Amino acid sequence: MHPLPVDWQNTFQAYNASITRRQFFRRSGTGLGVAALASLLGRNAVAAVDGSTPPAPWKIAPKAKRAIYISLIGAPSQLDLFDYKPDLRPRFKEDLKDWLAGQGERLTGMTAKQVAFPVAPTSFKFSQHGQNGTWISELLPHTAKMVDDLCIIRSMKTDAINHEPANQLVYTGSMQNGKASIGSWLAYGLGTANQDLPAFVVLHAKHSSPFSNVQAISARLWGSGFLPGKHAGVSFRPQGDPVLYLSDAPGIPRELRRTMLDGLDELNRRSYEQIGDPEIQTRTQQYEMAFRMQASVPELADLSSEPPSTYELYGEDARNRGTFASSALMARRLVERGVRFVQIFHRGWDQHGSLPRDITSQCKDVDQACYGLVQDLKQRGLLEDTLVIWGGEFGRTVYCQGTLTETNYGRDHHPRCFTIWMAGGGIKGGTVYGETDEMSYNVVKDPVHVRDLHATILHLMGINHERLSFKFQGLDQRLTGVLPSNVVKGILA
Asked: What is the distance between the alpha carbons of residues 363 and 352, in angstroms, rounded to a whole number?
């Protein structure tokens, strides 16, 4: 092992103090570059300083100011909830093996070796609701009451057949790791409306009913990827402090915490001047946000001011912190305070077996709370500029996985069609968009790819999806990527 030179410390300091060509031009943006730009722009430069900066090139007239995405991890069965196929009942147990071969079906490893693929009609009753007579399953009685507020899209489709890539595609726009989530894109493009709370908050709902199969999910689904770290989703926990380390340690008064942060800020400023890494600035901003959240989050999480009528609307489960009903109520409180994007993750929708039992439990968890959320926003005058999205990552198969009986069955993954609903924020309520074939297998009218959904969400939030980009690894990265994606105009109010 070679000994360090005597003057190693001076050498190290000289290295840190050195400036590369790239760092010179980066720093020029706040020095020589600004002076040169000001001389070229004249009055326009002064106008930018006084707050009248022209809008970013990707901004368009918004319909919504904020959004709530209810993410049902595991993929709820469209056949048992929204995509009514009564003609399947006489075909109970009909083997689709030959028919599937003609469809060029991709099979998962869970059903690829099945000898037969019997038709599994839903065991649940459907009835018509709303002005348009929309068919809704008996599993969703509260959702049925608000169909005139909803746009139900029955013709969603995706490219992925397994959970992890499908979730990454629907929440980050790509099946590859390292991409920015949709909430991070919105935070990056639109900024925050409340300096004391994050622009993007994630809620993880626990189950209040029995369940059997809950997938693990990763922070990639709400991460910032290549975008600055400050745009990542901030997870609020269902137990303990809503945010880790929110409370000051014993013996640390607020004034001392402020002094500590001021010292850290000075150290980070010096590091940035030497290294030029923008993540140093991100770290400083996050420290400051955490300090402000110490005051804002306890008030946010305190539900004692909510009247009894709130719990009548969302259900008594809303009193139990961390349940889906409580998360839905928290989502309303968050957007009410200016949070740009709230995402509620509710897992357990992967019903390969015992579907009738498990989907009943899952729907009991979310049905009334979703109704309560939409109606609460509506009563407060927030629904018209709050976009609500409800759905999973793909659909479920018409054929049964495993043993099929009159009362029990399971369904495998199905990427070719699934159902979501949207409400508020510029969406045309009382609408059913798109159709599938008699098997709920292929889309036959008005297909909506996941990329089209992303383009539409950005459009409603006031962003042109083709112009919102971020330079990374020499490429202009976009949420919708480079493949065709279009705003779904047929669902816009």
From this structure: 16
